[in-house]
Design brief:
Two copies of one chain form a homodimer. Chain A has about 500 residues and is an alpha/beta fold. Chain A contains 16 helices and eleven strands. Chain A has a domain of about 270 residues: Aspartate Aminotransferase, domain 2, CATH 3.40.640.10. The radius of gyration of chain A is 24 Å and the shape is globular. Chains A, B: Its cofactor is pyridoxal 5'-phosphate.
């Protein structure tokens, strides 16, 4: 393909994607294919000769598209959102067009430096303490990792390295391997599976401590676990706090837990993969009260902040902890100090290579502006609250627990089985997509506002689909609450989400 | 940005990138900026209001572009290539446009299945044994990882898990932690730094064994290391063979080493990050003779195979080894068997999330065709051989060792210092970019054909720049060899690289 052909096919691809988004409401959110559908459709061998370019786009529409679950559909309410925006795509095209790798500063100075700049921007927008930022005097700084999974593992490995160095300083005769085997990591039983996996990958026992009735891990529970393990001769090393759990989006109380970690010399990592984005709105920052106790903080800009995967934004208070753990060259600390303002990011992460990922963060921040991003978060939370009100007005349903961020959990009052049936039937219908979880031993359905396209009418559409399916399972009692849909105007002011954004 | 604005700005971005490539020869390959240049240029805080979209592209050209090292420039001869092509960009735009995450099959069936299909295609193109492929009857299969670093670490962790399970089967009373501490990994001293780092990250001692005079690790060296360690009570666990070392692109002899690993029950991982791409041409497959002994094989399609970073293609003979190591859900083996043809890739990798990366591999294979990809490899090797001939005709220079793939190492006969000076002076001129390495204790300059745009004239341009700089250091002796440039037509047939591809 020469550059003239690229101009043509590239623009046709831009139109294809724009059309896809313009007409996304015409598609079922879930596809109607069986496992193996594409293996049967596509040839077993690669083509020998190049195919006509237009044909590739046609193949995409005819073979790939039918097997897509439409995460950007307004009726996608499963998991948490995955970031996508036109602004992000512009950044990605620029990044792919340059095709540079930022293995060192001189391998492409702008690649390293734009990451520093945008991570300062984002860190300030989130209200992170100064010491986490690259622009502070100290050794703190931000870096883009591939995923929250990666960030959790990177910090676990750094915590392990830091702890063993501290212990060896006190007692150089220590058996390093045997001591490391005694290290223990902690998190709550509400953690994402990737946190548990970090323990497996990083060879550290990971204890999933029991959360309370509200899905929060309490300080006393953590303290007891530390004491229990120390009594066994084990060494507490790493703790992952969840700001916004995967199930019900509960928030651990950092201000309660932080001092305990500090006292014990345990690395406190904050996993705010989804909900962290909300901290760009000052009214939600109380949920990260005590953040100054954290050693590291991670949020996925590629979840709720309109940046395409992968862009996991991680900050550490002390980047030397990463460099000491990951730099196989063991460069002199003097060099590191000089480099502090222009970090050698390859020593802050697991792989050697790195894409120019900050470009998409940059285009998103510039094209939305801080206010545009805050509006996105606030609108989505408003829409979730609107959905919760619709559910609450139908007495066959219970909203439980209280909605958190853009997540609403609900169930049928008639029990777990019928709630599961409702979800199963809805999934089979393929018109909207939700997943379930457990709250206080009850099965609840999670409804998340995910797509940036979702507006008030879409929420009503989703609710009507749910209600209709519930009607099949439980005939609706005729009472005031059941007429929720016809009473929209009485619900008071909610943020209006612009369709065209 | 609404979809209409995206159509406009998206197309303007396509033109910007096409223009960039059309005019890439007008730029110095290396930028003229000092560390911190961008930190000074850009505002310290994110903009509050959205910026005009056109302005973002203008800012890109004015602030980012001056800080770019142009990896796709025909005069970029450093490291190894990083993949970039218009075909790959089309795949990326489609992937970003869909914005789906393939955490499970049903999270987007096509995302999992296209990866299966394209990895079968690529595995067959490379001539990998059937048992590595998803389409085989057995438990083998291919997956796209983020980088060769990640693949090396993933397999190290799987090897560790497999070994401990085997040992525990024989003796369930074993102390698991203490036994794991005895595991040792091996590679040659020519390995990429990421292999050494995998040992650090995966908590396994990694021994860098001495390679021979040709940069190859010999079977006897490995055997001796095994014996030595076993005598100390240690347990050989993992070996990384290098097919194409980072320095001089040497090839370990798998057929020699494989049987020794097999006998010892050591996991044999083959790191063919760069050179692996050449195996799509049958004439280079002799370099992977013995590949049937490998447990895992990795090559970066994002290096020499025109796919944009990240697309590291990894195959394993037994995917259960990965699932056993990484699946925190510990699902029943029966499920795994059913899923074998449609794998749950999240259990084959470290992170939970996964982008739709196979789309760009798919567009590249379809738009180039297998023959187009082979032509790319062959043309680049021919160009490297052409460069070698130019150097050899100048008696001030020595080409050493023999060129391998698209890499030519050379030095001035007058010694290391003057060779270093030559490289330093050339780097300061910024017109071409090469890096050095050590071969048989001599400093050599590495010249790699990297860009897909590089043609015969570009190679001549690069050589003339080198020659000119050498003239400043050593006056050229007037002899027949020195007139190489004027004798092109006598060099015989070499592959002609089409400018317009």
């Amino acid at each position: 393909m020469n550059s003239q052909e690229f101009r043509e096919i590239g623009k046709a691809t831009i139109d294809l994607i724009a059309d896809y988004h313009d007409n996304i409401r015409n598609r079922n959110v879930l596809p109607s294919v069986e496992p193996g559908y594409l293996l049967k459709l596509l040839p077993e061998d690669a083509p020998e000769e190049p195919e006509d370019h237009q044909n590739v786009l046609k193949d995409f529409c005819e073979t790939i598209m039918p097997g897509i679950t439409h995460w950007q559909s307004p009726q996608f309410h499963a998991y948490f959102p995955t970031g996508q925006s036109f602004a992000s795509m512009i950044g990605s095209i620029l990044s792919d067009g340059l095709g540079v790798i930022g293995i060192t500063w001189n391998a492409s100075p702008a690649c390293t430096e734009l990451e520093v700049v945008t991570m300062n921007w984002l860190g300030k927008l989130l209200g992170l303490p100064e010491e986490f930022l690259n622009c502070s005097e100290g050794p703190g700084g931000g870096i883009i990792q591939g995923s929250a999974s990666e960030a959790t593992l990177v910090c676990l490995l750094a915590a392990k390295d830091k702890k063993i160095r501290q212990l060896l300083e006190n007692d150089p005769t220590l058996d390093e391997d045997q001591t490391k085997n005694k290290f223990v990591a902690y998190t709550s039983d509400q953690c994402n599976s990737s946190v548990e996996k970090a323990g497996v990958l990083g060879s550290m026992k990971m204890r999933l401590l029991k959360s309370d009735n509200n899905g929060q891990l309490r300080a006393q529970t953590l303290k007891d676990a530390f004491e229990e393990d120390k009594a066994k001769g084990l060494i507490p090393c790493y703790f992952v706090a969840n700001l916004g759990t995967t199930g019900i989006c509960a928030f651990d109380l950092i201000y309660e837990i932080g001092p305990i970690c500090q006292e014990e010399g345990v690395w406190l990592h904050v996993d705010a993969a989804y909900a962290g984005a909300a901290f760009i709105c000052p009214e939600y920052r109380h949920l990260m009260k005590g953040i100054e106790y954290a050693d590291s903080f991670d949020m996925n800009a590629h979840k709720w902040l309109l940046v395409n995967f992968d862009c996991s934004a991680m900050w550490v208070k002390n980047s030397y902890d990463l460099i000491n753990a990951f730099d196989v060259q063991r460069i002199y600390l003097d060099d590191v100090k000089t480099a502090a303002k222009v970090p050698d990011y390859r020593h802050w992460q697991m792989p050697l290579g790195r894409r120019f990922r900050s470009l998409k963060l940059w285009t998103v921040i510039k094209m939305y502006g801080a206010e545009g991003l805050r509006k996105h978060i606030r609108d989505q939370i408003s829409l979730a609250q609107y959905f919760a009100k619709l559910v609450q007005r139908d007495e066959r349903f219970v909203v439980e627990p209280e909605p958190s961020m853009a997540l609403v959990c609900f169930r049928l009052v008639n029990g777990d089985k019928i709630t599961r049936d409702l979800l199963d039937n809805l999934t089979k219908k393929k018109e909207l997509f939700m997943v379930g979880c457990t709250y206080r031993e009850r099965f609840v359905i999670r409804f998340v506002i995910c797509s940036r396209f979702t507006n008030k009418e879409d929420v009503e559409t989703s609710w009507n689909i749910i209600k209709e399916e519930a009607d099949q399972l439980i005939p609706e009692k005729m009472n005031a609450k059941s007429h929720a849909i016809s009473a929209f105007d009485q619900l008071g002011t909610i943020g209006i989400y612009e369709k065209s954004k």
